[in-house]
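Postdoc handover notes: sequence design on the structure in folder B. Input tokens:
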């Protein structure tokens, strides 16, 4: 489908390269006085609108405002109905004004821009044109008249009454050949007055005055003479009023017919409801009875559930008491087991078997001890008798002997003690 793809402004009233994509839904955002409307006014120029008409009267002319420099470009990239991509490039003329030139290739930034001293600058017009020719890109001849450009882009060569045709026959043939290669539509179509429609749309006004102005400009350009009528305005107003009433009558009649149909439908539904009323009443009574029975059953189930819950709680408390008693018994048994374990360990540490053997041997040891005790008594009696004989013998021997006895006493005293210790029974303790 033929349509405008994008607008590229190079080194125009804004510095650098400004690109506006138009191949889909486009939203232009910005603060007040940032140039949104100024950029939007470029759209009607593509369709053949006079450039100075899109610029407010309070500003400079189109070429001085949008193309202020010798290397300023205004590029329109578009798709033809045949499918090929083309450009139309607007530049500033040597003596002012706008010049148009078609390019049979899509827009490429390197065709217009080059890098110089570390920054990107735009090419001059001759340099740009020579670069296109060097790359084998076909270009059209320069068009200086907006009417010629409009005829080519719209494929419209209808002669305008009161004005000469587009130059001579040779010039008209050149323009037709150019339109066959660069026109927005196919050769069998034309889009006459498209620039006026686009301008009216972009004027943001849908008022009748704008439409009247657009139609008047079209009629004037086409040389159409409006017929003169002798009908009075009052008569025309009456006719218009009657026509409007008749136009309103048809919807009212249709609405009345719809109301009749609705009334008939309501009557039918009301009769049907009256037929269904006895059955609905019977269903209501049956439902109320079922609901009462259900409520009674629910109450019975609740009472049974409450009784079961109480039984459950009673049984649970009894089991908890039993569990507590068993737990206490278990703890008492554990303590008894621990006490027995400690006593067993003490029994094992005390070597009770040996004590048991000693206890069994106690009567024998006592008897042996008694024998030894009796033997000791006998020995003591013998010792005393011997001591008495010794003293008696000493007295017989005379006085010098005590001195000798005192000399030998340290020798025989330990012998007596060792003899006494040997007489005591072995293996007996003081407790025994």
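Designed sequence:
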């Amino acid at each position: 489908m033929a349509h405008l793809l994008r607008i590229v402004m190079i080194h125009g009233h804004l510095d650098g390269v400004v690109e506006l994509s138009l191949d889909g839904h486009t939203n232009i955002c910005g603060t007040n006085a940032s140039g949104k409307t100024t950029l939007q006014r470029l759209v009607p120029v593509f369709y053949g609108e006079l450039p100075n008409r899109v610029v407010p009267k309070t500003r400079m002319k189109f070429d001085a405002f949008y193309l202020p420099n010798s290397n300023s470009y205004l590029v329109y990239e578009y798709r033809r109905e045949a499918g090929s991509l083309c450009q139309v490039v607007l530049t500033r003329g040597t003596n002012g004004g706008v010049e148009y030139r078609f390019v049979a290739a899509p827009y490429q930034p390197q065709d217009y821009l080059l890098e110089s001293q570390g920054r990107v600058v735009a090419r001059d017009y001759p340099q740009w044109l020579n670069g296109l020719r060097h790359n084998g890109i076909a270009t059209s001849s320069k068009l200086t008249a907006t009417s010629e450009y409009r005829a080519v882009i719209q494929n419209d060569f209808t002669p305008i009454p009161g004005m000469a045709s587009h130059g001579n026959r040779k010039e008209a043939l050149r323009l037709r050949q150019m339109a066959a290669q660069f026109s927005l539509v196919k050769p069998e179509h034309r889009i006459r007055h498209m620039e006026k429609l686009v301008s009216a749309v972009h004027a943001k006004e849908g008022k009748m005055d704008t439409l009247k102005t657009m139609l008047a400009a079209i009629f004037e350009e086409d040389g159409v003479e409006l017929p003169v009528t002798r009908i009075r305005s009052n008569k025309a107003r009456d006719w218009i009023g009657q026509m409007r009433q008749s136009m309103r009558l048809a919807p009212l009649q249709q609405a009345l017919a719809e109301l009749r149909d609705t009334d008939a439908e309501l009557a039918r539904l009301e009769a049907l409801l009256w037929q269904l009323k006895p059955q609905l009443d019977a269903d209501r009574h049956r439902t109320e009875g079922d609901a009462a029975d259900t409520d009674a059953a629910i109450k019975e189930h609740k009472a049974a559930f409450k009784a079961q819950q109480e039984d459950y709680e009673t049984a649970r408390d009894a089991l908890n008491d039993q569990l507590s008693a068993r737990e206490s018994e278990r703890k008492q048994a554990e303590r008894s087991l621990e006490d027995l374990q400690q006593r067993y360990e003490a029994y094992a540490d005390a070597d009770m078997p040996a004590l048991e053997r000693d206890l069994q041997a106690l009567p024998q040891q006592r008897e042996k001890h008694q024998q030894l005790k009796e033997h000791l008594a006998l020995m003591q009696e013998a010792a005393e008798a011997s001591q008495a004989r010794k003293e008696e013998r000493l007295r017989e021997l005379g006085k010098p002997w005590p001195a000798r006895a005192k000399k030998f006493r340290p020798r025989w005293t330990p012998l007596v003690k060792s003899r006494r210790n040997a007489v005591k029974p072995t293996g007996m303790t003081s407790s025994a």
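Context for whoever picks this up: The chain has 13 helices and seven strands. Don't rerun without checking with the PI first.
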